[in-house]
Amino acid sequence: MAIVTPLKTAAEQALVQQFANVKAELPGGNAVRKLREDAFAGFEAKGLPHRRLESWRYTDLRGLLRDAKPLAGQPAITPEIAERLAALKLDGIRLVLVDGAFAAELSTLEGLPEGVTVNALADALVSPREDLTRILSGPGVSADDSGLMLNTALMRDGVMVEIAEGVELETPIAIVSLVSGVEEQAVYSRSVVLFGKGAKGTVVEVSEAAGPKAAQINGALVIETGDETEVQHVRIVTRHAAESVQVQSLLATVGAQARFDSFALVCNSGTVRQQHFVRYAGEHSEVGLRGVSLLGGQEHSDVTLIVDHEVPHGTSRELFKSIIGGEGTGVFQGKVIVRPHAQKTDGGMKSNALLLNDGATMFNKPELEIFADDVVCGHGATVAQIDGEQLFYLMARGLPRPQAEALVLQAFAGEAVEFVADENLRVLIMSEVEAWLGEREAHAVVSAI
Amino acid sequence: MLEIRNLVVKIADEDKQILNGLNLTVSAGEVAAIMGPNGSGKSTLSYVIAGKEDYEVLDGEILLNGENVLEMEADQRAAAGIFLAFQYPLEIPGVATMTFLKAAMNAQRKARGEAELLTPDFIKQVNAAADKLGIARDMLRRPLNVGFSGGEKKRMEILQMALLSPSMCILDETDSGLDIDALRIVAEGVNALRDKNRGFLVITHYQRLLDHIVPDTVHVMSKGRIVKTGGKDLALELEKSGYAAYGEAA
């Protein structure tokens, strides 16, 4: 049999060259260096993820990246970045990354609550911490992913946050990642948030662009929650150039008797692939993964989940809502794995999409891999149009069609948003949703005239 | 006030014709009842007046104060004064009842060129109307109609009618699913809105509702037409004799 050596694409060849050029400069001690080398070797063998891989079937990264943009250099702190930061309605601790590099001068490091430590990831990577490579590696089910391998190889900076045992955060910790958008560039960053036993808190991730140039963004967030923790993660991806392509990985390991909830909003952001890898490290824990994607134009939002019930008595709930107009494409791939001894697992997964017009597309692929016999697991996926009966009811009360549609859509998205416990964050998310709907409504009014 | 002339209507995606040259007039201050068997086209008539899109009007006109409403979208008809109390009010999860009420009231005010309601005035109005209908405050905080009982949904419809103050009220089988106490509350709500400038079209199967909302005129509908018109005694007569005779006549 002939051995087929896949031809490398221009982007893959450029990535090989880039890694060779920068690997000596990238931060990290020997263990991290080896982690990078191994990850890149894995990437080289697999290449960029492509549509013949089941897990990347609907987001052909190899096809999308025609070239590899230059790696981001020294961050440009432009006036637009200051403007974006000023406009952000987020209370609490703010940790700012610009083009993937931690910008301490833009962050609120003074007055950190007791028991919270923050370091630049670049500094943490050179620390002698023994468990560093284990933490960075995340859940085992992420090990095969060549998009994540690329992040491991090229991650340049980010933040590492540690919340000590028993600490209850009163305000969220926000990791605000801005790309300057002055030049086309590639940004690789990773952040780590570790919650000690019994700690409670909220981590917000914001990914935005301050300038108009498209970026290739590959970000990862590692969250480890100790036993008896209560952690909420919120991610908001918005205001990116239409040609931007980004991969955002969430690597979550959840301790025993813990609660971990994640919510992600994607809108106005070109192509976004989110991948959540979640592992239960202890029993009797509850995980909720939810999100809303609002798509128009040629936008593409892929949410791919792997929830690994490794231990018994785990509960997982997933709820993802997509509203798709224009020629937008939504993807939901949710895989729930229940290992042979993970008895009494309770899993429920839902993906609901509303298509606003003929050009819109949704791919739903829920998967259950159940190897235990005493479990309750279910999934449901729907693709529909706006409910004409609801619309008529609202219009019959005097709401003009665009306003009635906006109300129905807002309510549709709201069903996932309402699981975010922090009211300020719920308001922030809904204000983004309303702004998106408002723009759509304005277009509808203009086209009606 | 409301004048319907030779209305011929079919379901938009099917060949099925539902209304076959219906004529009906409701004057200002009049309460007109329409009674008729299942499938006679009563609900279709109410939907077509309110502007539902699932129907195609093949012939005829619907005039509200001389203006042809068939040209208008549903929201414009509402702003012009038409209100349909639904037989099955829709549940809209995620939309708080108060948010919806305010949006509806302000949309109609805007369409009529009036200023938007200030929140304190709005809340005062809603609370006063809710108290009259025995609607608990916590119901107003819930998503619109979600988890409401049949009776609660109907009361919410009457609350909306009171707040929006329409000139032409259509009640589509408002009595269905109501126990006798709820029926009395709903009927009292409707009676309180009777006014010399307001017309009512009360659609029902049964005479029972008309004991509480006493009509000025009663129309019998069969096979998409009004086949007999009389006073309130006609309802009592129907209760005894049934609709069979009219099925034949149509």
Which short descriptors sum up this protein?
heterodimer, A: 449 residues, alpha/beta, 10-stranded mixed beta sheet, 10 helices, 19 strands, B: 250 residues, Rossmann fold, 6-stranded mixed beta sheet, 4-stranded antiparallel beta sheet, 10 strands, globular
Order of strands, main sheet of chain A, comes to 2-1-5-7-9-11-13-15-17-19
Total E-strand runs of chain A: 19
Count of the separate structural domains of chain A: 2
Number of domains of chain B: 1
For the sheet with most strands of chain B, the description reads: 6 strands, mixed
Q: What are the segments of chain B in which pLDDT stays under 50 over at least 5 consecutive residues? A: none
CA gyration radius of chain B, whole angstroms: 18 Å
- What's the tally of helices of chain A? 10
| Broad structural category of chain B | alpha/beta
Amino- and carboxy-terminal Cα gap of chain B: 27 Å
The fraction of residues assigned to DSSP E strands of chain B is 25-35%
Structural class category of chain A:
alpha/beta
Beta-strand percentage of chain A?
35-45%
Helix content of chain B: 25-40%
Order of helices and strands of chain A: HHHHEEEHHHEEEEEEEEEEEEEEEEHHH
Widest sheet, order of strands of chain B: 6-7-8-3-9-10
Report the top-level CATH class of chain B: Alpha Beta
CATH-defined architecture of chain B: 3-Layer(aba) Sandwich
Mean pLDDT value of chain B: 91
CATH-defined superfamily of chain B: P-loop containing nucleotide triphosphate hydrolases
Q: pLDDT below 50 for ≥5 consecutive residues: which ranges of chain A?
A: none
Short description:
Chain A is an alpha/beta fold. Chain A has helices at 10-22, 30-46, 61-64, 79-87, 121-125, 132-137, 146-154, 388-395, 401-417, 423-448, and strands spanning 93-98, 101-102, 116-120, 159-163, 173-179, 185-195, 200-209, 215-225, 230-237, 245-254, 259-267, 271-280, 286-295, 300-309, 315-324, 329-338, 346-355, 361-370, 376-384. In chain B, the strands form 2 sheets. Chain B has a 6-stranded mixed β-sheet, sandwiched between helices.
